Amino acid sequence: MISNHRTRLLAGSIFFLLLSVSVSLLALAETGDEGFTGFQRGVGLTLSGGFTNTESFGSVPEFTAELQFRIAPRVYAALAVGYLGDTISMHSSGMMSGAPLGFEDHLHRFQVVPIMLNVYYSVPISPKAAAYLTAGGGYFAATYWDLTTQSQGDFGGHMGAGLNFRPSRRLDVFAAGTYRLARIHGFQEEAHLGTMFGAASPSTFSLNLYGFRMQFGMRFRF
Fold first, then answer.
1. Does residue 98 sit within a domain?
2. pTM of the full structure
3. pLDDT tens string 113-166
4. What is the residue range of 59's domain?
5. Does residue 159 contact residue 178 with C-beta atoms inside 8 Å?
6. In angstroms, rounded to a whole number, what is the distance separating the alpha carbons of residues 127 and 165?
7. Could you give the CA distance from residue 120 to residue 105 in angstroms, rounded to a whole number?
8. Rounded distance, CA 12 to CA 179, Å?
9. How many C-beta neighbours within 10 Å does residue 60 have?
10. 115 inside domain
11. Domains identified in the chain, total number
């Protein structure tokens, strides 16, 4: 619990540092955008990995692929497809007439595929570096495996900031922190050995993806 709390504090600190740097640089943007990182014409293919802190399952790994296009001198749009998921160990027990029915450890597995439209506003720091603000929204397709396979989907979004560096003309590397707002509703709890729902129907639950998201990656320019 303490480790998870420290992880969230670290993620939050990095996020607000990136956001502060980006905002403070808005007034310092220079002309000659074509010579600066993040302002090249053409298409960029982005591959990134990192982790997402979720309210439902703590920190989980996440990977993203993205196609980025410039739509204005400092503005980019991108279509992204991601993947995050994990396996969770659950412990259940039940009682009948005051006597225990038994205990069981079982594994649940989930995956979420976000399909997002993202927008970036980039601000040059130097010919080799740029800061940027980003926001995006899209559809989150989720699958949950328990005794049966359940699939649901819902809409969500994120906002945040990042730093971009260009070691060569065709390659960028970056680090970004965003805060995600997404909750996928409609999954149903299932009765395992040693549990009872009683007379009531099994309850439903949501995959809650609210939390900080840290990503590190590379962008290839064409």
1. yes
2. 0.73
3. 999 999 999 988 888 899 999 999 999 999 988 878 899 999 999 999 999 998
4. 2-28+42-221
5. yes
6. 9
7. 45
8. 9
9. 20
10. yes
11. 1
Residues 139/155, Cβ–Cβ less than 8 Å: yes
Whole-angstrom distance, CA of residue 170 vs CA of residue 176:
20
- Looking at per-residue pLDDT, the higher value among 208 and 108 belongs to 208
Q: How many CB atoms lie within 10 A of CB 78?
A: 21
Task: Indicate whether 171 belongs to any domain.
Answer: yes
Tell me the two tokens of residue 109.
Answer: 């597995």
CATH code for position 166: 2.40.160.20
Question: SS3 breakdown of the chain: % helix, strand, coil, rounded to 5?
Answer: 15, 65, 20
* 33 within domain boundaries: no
DSSP result, 14-51: HHHHHHHHHHHHGGG--S-GGGSTT--SSEEEEEEEEE
The answer to whether the CB of 60 falls within 8 A of the CB of 84 is: yes
CB distance 48 to 164 below 8 Å: no
